[in-house]
Design goal:
Structural class: alpha+beta
Mean pLDDT: 78
Length: 274
């Protein structure tokens, strides 16, 4: 399982229809507009426990398990639970061809999985017609179609453009729903008014300056964002309460000792995607 992000992967799409002074075309947005959107995104991402927004990830899947006892001559061993018993086996991807004893006809992708962008095997892109994605709320199963299976093993020391490798590039997370886009647009509108002192701002005064990722902006009302939205932007807070009624900071995850986590070799924020 990959690490938890300390912030959203990128700016949420916004619906600023309720902000009459907001330019309709994104090409007309200034740096202040983009900064206001990032502030609104960051606030709502945290208040909704980070459950919305798409992150592009590249993982290097490992096999699910091994039913045979390992070769004792290998030096690097890792514990594995198989059929209720613990064994030591060579670390997957760092040994020879014997590092796996079962074929992979499906890959488990940490989820939620929105879409698979690209699969590379032995450095070559696999056509989408050669695999099928089955989604669950917490993960995705990438099943090899036809008579083929995913390779028994891969060499994690090599980049995924070389032979004996396997990688999956996919979008992980949940897209921001229409109500979330409207909430982000309303909050961004008020943040923009506060920055430009144009008047009519619903946010209270008394903020402080914060520097994050090279950007400096005024943020955090004196009573905190949750209390401020409840009192001054009830429409925005209504959506937050709808999707995170218990105000949790992070939703629970399920881990399996039988399924080793796939190494995450890259994570891209949305503004860096090509």
């Amino acid at each position: 399982m990959s690490e938890v992000l300390d912030g959203p992967c990128g700016a949420w799409p916004v619906d600023a229809a309720c902000c009459p002074d907001w330019p309709c075309a994104p090409s007309e947005w200034t740096d202040l507009h983009h900064t206001a959107i990032m502030i609104a995104t960051d606030v709502l991402w945290r208040l909704t426990a980070g459950q919305y927004g798409l992150c592009e990830e590249v993982i290097r899947p490992c096999r699910r398990g091994c039913d045979e006892e390992p070769d004792r001559e290998r030096r690097t061993l890792s514990p594995i639970l198989a059929k209720g018993r613990w064994y030591n086996r060579p670390g997957c991807g760092y040994g020879g061809k014997s590092c796996s004893c079962t074929r992979l006809c499906e890959l488990i992708l940490p989820g939620p999985v929105h879409d698979v962008i690209k699969v590379r095997q032995n450095g070559q892109v696999i056509p989408k017609s050669c695999y099928t994605l089955y989604r669950t709320p917490t993960a995705g199963r990438l099943v090899r179609t036809g008579d083929q299976c995913w390779p028994d093993c891969q060499d994690l020391r090599r980049p995924d453009t070389e032979p004996d490798t396997l990688s999956v590039r996919y979008l992980r997370g949940l897209p921001v729903p229409a109500a979330g886009q409207r909430a982000a647009g309303q909050l961004a509108c008020e943040v923009y008014k506060q920055c430009t002192n144009t008047g009519g701002c619903a946010l209270p005064a008394g903020t402080k300056t914060v520097v994050r990722e090279g950007l400096t902006y005024n943020i955090v009302p004196p009573e905190g964002w949750a209390q401020t939205l409840q009192a001054h932007l009830p429409q925005v807070w209504a959506w937050v309460e709808l999707v995170n009624p218990h105000r949790v900071q992070q939703f629970a995850s399920v881990f399996s000792l039988d399924v080793p986590p796939a190494p995450v070799t890259a994570r891209y924020r949305t503004e860096d995607q090509s």
